Each structure stands twice: as C-alpha cells, then as structure tokens.
Amino acid sequence: MSIEHVSDTARWVAVYRAMETDRPDAIFHDPFARRLAGEKGEQIVRGMKRAQGVAWAMIVRTAVMDEIIGEALAQGTDTVLNLAAGLDARPWRMELPPTLRWVDVDFAGILDHKLSVLEGETPKCDYRARRADLTDGDARRAALADATEGSSRTLVITEGLLLYLTPDDVAALGRDLHAAAPIQAWLTDLASPRLLKWMLRSWSKNVNNPDAAFRFAPEEGTGFFEPLGWKEASFRSVGEEAYRLDRDMPGGWIWRLVGRFMSAEKQEEARRMSGVVLLERI
After folding, report:
1. pLDDT confidence tier of residue 212, bands split at 50, 70 and 90
2. How far apart, in Å, are the Cα atoms of 80 and each of 89, 101, 102, 151, 188?
3. For residues 80 and 49, which has the higher predicted lDDT (pLDDT)?
4. Residue 113 gets which letter from DSSP?
5. For residue 246, how many C-alpha atoms fall within 13 Å in the half-sphere facing its CB?
6. pLDDT per residue over 15-54, tens digit each?
7. Whose CA is closest to 21, among 9, 10, 29, 13?
8. Does the pTM of the predicted model rise above 0.90?
9. CATH topology of domain 54-281
10. Of the candidates 221, 214, 210, 220, which has an alpha carbon nearest to the alpha carbon of residue 188?
11. Are 184 and 153 in contact (CB under 8 A)?
12. Alpha-carbon distance 128 to 126, whole Å?
C-alpha cells in the first residue's frame, strides 16, 4: 500500500485513533475515527511495514495534545486554528466551550471528506472550515488573517504537518504566524534527525508522491524556531509520555535500562527523539 497524497497520512493516523478508542482502557475516545479513516486507511496500516508497531506514538501524541489544548483553553484561548487539520475530530469529540472558535484549514478534498462523514454530527464549539493550500503563501496569510480576526488569544496547531515541509517552508510559516498578533502559542510535534532517518528507511518506498515525503527534523531542535519569533514553552517527550500514559513503546523498558548508563547528553538526545512542543511568542 502506498501513500499517493499527503492527505493519505490523515487516514493512516485516524486508524490509530480508532484502535485506541476500541480499548476498554482508552485514554481518549474518537468515535468518528474509523469512519473517517475508511477502508483506505485500514489498508495503509495493514500494508506498510511496522505501521502497527508505531501506533503507540501517534496515540500518545493525540492524548498529550488533547491535554495541552485543554490547558490553553483554561488560560483564556478563544480561538484554535488547526492547520493541515486532516481528519482530526476534536471539535466534535472533546468537551469544548460553545463560544470557542475552532478553524480547520486544509486541502479541499480532505476537508470535504471529513465534513461529509460527519454530516449530521454537531460540533461542541463554533466550528469553521477553510479550504486552502498552506504552501501557498498568499492563501496561508489570508487564512491566518480571517481565522484570527477579533481574537485576543489564538492557539495554532500543526499536528503532523511540519514533518512534510522543507525547512524554508517551516520558516515561512513561522514568520507568518508571528506576524499575526493574536497568535500567542503554537502547538506542534517535532522529530529528531535520528528519527527521520529511521522513518525514511522504514517507509520512504511506500511514498509515491514527493509532497508526502518526510523532510523536517532540524538539528537544532526547537532552537530552529527562535529566529522566527518563537521559543520553547514546553517539550513533552513522546517516550516519557508513553510511559506515563501506560502506552509504552515495544521494548521501552530495555531503552530505559540502557539509558541509565548513558551520559546526560545522550539521555537528553534520546528524550528529544520525538516530542510534542508548545511554542510561545517571543
């Protein structure tokens, strides 16, 4: 099974949310995930080498982002702007203030699919969808201006997006986000160069569209964002969060044992292999 378009990755990750939802001890519930993933999503997970083995990481990412979004709302966020929203169903599945403005931005095809599947379901907040190609600078800036108009505190989410962009594309996005004054926080996930190499070895042959290739994993980590006007507010290691949430990686106990004999520098490198990052405006 191959990835023909970057939107196929949204179906892929939706299967993981469905897998977690099916568990009796689920750490979140997404009752829409399996319908959104469809048969193509199931085929991708069945057909890609090691795809099921990394489900824990995507499940943990979802749960941790849920927590951070809840914290942001408690601190006065009035708008959530989800860029490359894919098949995320948080506006329907999370308990959200009805006055919250939530704006999903993505390609027309994936948004149209999501809204057709969720037709008849009622979002928990003031939900809006905007169709746009986020690599088009003019379209991106127009979407940001429209979404943040009248907002006093906006949280931007780029879950699963940056990995597919070039460093130049990420830099342009970061500058545009900083230019929009209401955007005070930016929630994203970040891979290390070491993890990127593993992903390329494991799955690059399944990707038949260069737009869906894995690209972004900066050597400087969150330091990449500082010249763009953003600094790290928190970094939550996916490995550590997996242990906390009882969704440990296969063989995680071995890595923790080995880690005790590593230098502090190597321990921090391992900790930052993959993380959920909250950036705040400088």
Report:
1. low
2. 13, 6, 5, 10, 13
3. 80
4. H
5. 6
6. 999 999 999 999 999 999 999 999 999 988 888 777 788 8
7. 29
8. yes
9. Rossmann fold (3.40.50)
10. 221
11. yes
12. 7
CB-CB contact of 176 with 230 (8 Å): no
Q: Could you count the other beta carbons within 10 Å of the beta carbon of residue 116? A: 8
pLDDT at site 251:
80
Q: Any alpha helices (H) in 75-123, and if so which ranges?
A: 90-93, 108-117
d(CA 47, CA 203): 11
Domain range summary for the chain, segments of one domain joined by +: 54-281
Q: How does residue 265 score in pLDDT terms, banded at 50, 70 and 90?
A: confident
CA distances from 125 to 13, 96, 166, 232 (A): 23, 6, 33, 28
Two structure tokens written together for 19: 């897998």
Judging by DSSP bridges, how do beta strands 183-191 and 154-158 pair with one another?
parallel
